[in-house]
Specification:
DNA-binding transcription factor activity (chains A, B); homodimer; 175 residues; elongated; DNA-binding; 0% strand; 9 helices; Homeodomain-like_sf (chains A, B)
Chain lengths: 175, 175
DNA sequence: GTCTATAGATGGATAGAC
DNA sequence: GTCTATCCATCTATAGAC
């Protein structure tokens, strides 16, 4: 069983992702986490502390993911493409939650996401050794990711992207 | 001078884009529009009516934009790529504002954005006559657009996308 | 059409019991 | 560490004057 602290952050993220920041109130988070508002505020003295706690966890997960991508047997491009599919993993949820917060002009959230993208780009560029192509792969995966995040209907996109990346030879790389 | 109604919607959109839905309160919208809260509520009896009014205006602008794209002298792909740059136009603002609302599980906003994308895709597919390529162009432009929307630092992306689209021959099309 | 005043509900946060 | 009770600010919405 996760710690209360983690269950609270999970609840905060889930509400941010599912309903947006407006609905992620202390009351709602407490209820989702199965704790009282007082209990929540013991762990996170203010709503802003929830944001900080969430971004800290995201940075941890991000560092681990970049390492996993670097040594993925199928190559970084294929790994990145696969993990652009929205799996509902804890990491996914934390990224989207951070995106929600960053849209409220929160510099800490924007910078956490920027650093994540930078780390991924470095791995792509290492393996592709083609700056333009690395950026394009990242953009395509961003788009797949964000479209899904926004609930847009784009089932045909993934096969199209795979086909185009094959035309460009981007799927041939090895770690 | 714009009508009061339009100034109110402009203010609502500006707050959604700049600060997020949480900050787009009736008080804040009224102040930004230079009208009292009572005055605002005369035109839009509830906050939800602001959303509906905003989406109506977006649909109008969207229909006009798809037509402009279809007959653009530089071709639909180049037009679409150029207008993916965030210009701060009224249309831009309305799209991003709708994206903010759609993230709160608002089916009306999601559907308005979906319809817009569908209309653009049709034009791209007409001119490219390559389904995969049309989807890819759209995804790349989405990514450029959304990255900018989210305040991510990606100045190098546009030239990279242009270069890759040139490799694919996607920039050669004519209306 | 626009304003002020105010009601009623909800949000963030504190105090203190257990 | 977790809970209940409560305070105060803010938010949506209404009423009614001009």
């Amino acid at each position: 069983m996760a710690t209360t602290r983690d269950r609270i952050l999970n609840a905060f993220e889930a509400l941010l992702v599912g309903q947006g920041s407006r609905s992620a109130t202390l009351d709602a988070v407490a209820e989702e986490a199965g704790v009282s508002k007082g209990g929540l505020l013991y762990h996170f003295p203010s709503r802003d502390d929830l944001v900080v706690g969430m971004l800290d966890r995201l940075r941890d997960m991000g560092a681990k993911d970049a390492e996993k991508m670097r040594s993925a047997p199928q190559g970084a491009v294929a790994y990145y493409l696969e993990t652009s599919k929205h799996t509902g993993s804890a990491f996914d949820r934390a990224m989207i939650a951070a995106a929600r917060i960053s849209q409220e002009s929160d510099a800490r959230a924007s910078s956490a996401l920027d650093d994540l993208r930078e780390a991924w780009f470095e791995v792509l560029d290492e393996q592709l050794d083609d700056d333009e192509l690395a950026r394009t792969v990242q953009l395509l995966c961003d788009a797949l990711y964000f479209n899904e995040t926004m609930g847009l209907a784009e089932e045909a996109s993934m096969p199209a992207v795979r086909a185009i990346l094959a035309r460009l030879g981007a799927l041939d790389v090895q770690p």
